[in-house]
TrEMBL record:
Pfam families: ABC_tran (PF00005). This is Nitrate/sulfonate/bicarbonate ABC transporter ATPase. The lineage of its organism: Bacteria, Pseudomonadati, Pseudomonadota, Betaproteobacteria, Burkholderiales. It comes from Advenella kashmirensis (strain DSM 17095 / LMG 22695 / WT001) (Tetrathiobacter kashmirensis). CDD domains: ABC_NrtD_SsuB_transporters (cd03293). Residues 18-31 have a biased composition (Polar residues).
Amino acid sequence: MTHALKNTSLRLAATPAQVLQKSQPASQSAPTGPAGQASLPRGDVLPEASLPEALFRAERVNLRYQTGDAIVQATRDVSFSIYKGDRFILLGPSGCGKSSLLKAAAGFIKPQSGAFTLNGNAISGPGPDRVVVFQEFDQLAPWKTVLQNVIFALRASRTLDKVQARERAEHYLHRVGLGNFLHAYPHTLSGGMKQRVAIARALAMEPAVLLMDEPFAALDALTRRKMQEELLQLWEETRVTLMFVTHSIEEALVVGNRILLLSPHPGRVRAELNSHQFSMDSAGSEQFQAATSRIHRLLFEELPAFEADSTLAEHSHEPA
Ligand SMILES: Nc1ncnc2c1ncn2[C@@H]1O[C@H](COP(=O)(O)OP(=O)(O)OP(=O)(O)O)[C@@H](O)[C@H]1O
């Protein structure tokens, strides 16, 4: 299932890499790495007219925190584009600013400079077009049932009446396999089930971008794998655009079709690559292991991305 899914994503989510491949004569086609990715030679710029329209953009985003006299620079000049239907991953070591970027994309914190845009409009605060699923299991109101939790979010966004909200909530709860738990309270659910409710609630909002901040990190390994599989299945059904934060290289390769690699603190873009060729079944394969090692080198070696490995990265960004 997931292999087919990954291939489908290629058709749906036209990325600059695809445009490059399509728009070039065969003799000038982009070099292809061992994992089959197209690589852009350093300095190559895609002709602007041939780029697909991005749904969501980060443009030179600098995020800073001030606590007392101390200023923490969380990210530096981070830019990326997410296209409709992407499963876009922010991957980087602890403290590189992944969660900060996701919170800023949600509109919870403001960049010190730079901007986020959705459909070309600047983001100035939270909105129902960007819904977040967090890692914590306490995202649900404990005094409300599973169904009430989802209905409450839908009613708060003021887009649906009572009957419509209930229908929508039931629909998405059935989709995540919780049809028999509509009237259960959160404390009676396992961690995985609580995350399913949070995902159903987010999907029910039918956001333009679903933001996920390490949603499976607190789950045991088996449940985590199952949830990754279910998320891919849900993506297959809904084609929702995902922005997914993780510090697990394996999770990034399995869940994503595009991965943005961030340097250690403060987070800067190290490289961007395609990962659509990997599925749940490829974990453990030679190709998967090779990609994992290369990403590890790109993340942690001090070399500029392209010198570290010119075959994996689709776009590279030199440290400032
Ligand atoms: N509210 C805050 N006040 C001050 N500094 C903060 C705050 N939130 C994050 N930071 C700092 O910003 C930097 C980036 O943190 P962030 O949580 O975004 O990183 P991360 O990549 O998501 O890390 P992790 O994978 O460990 O969750 C870190 O140095 C962190 O200490």
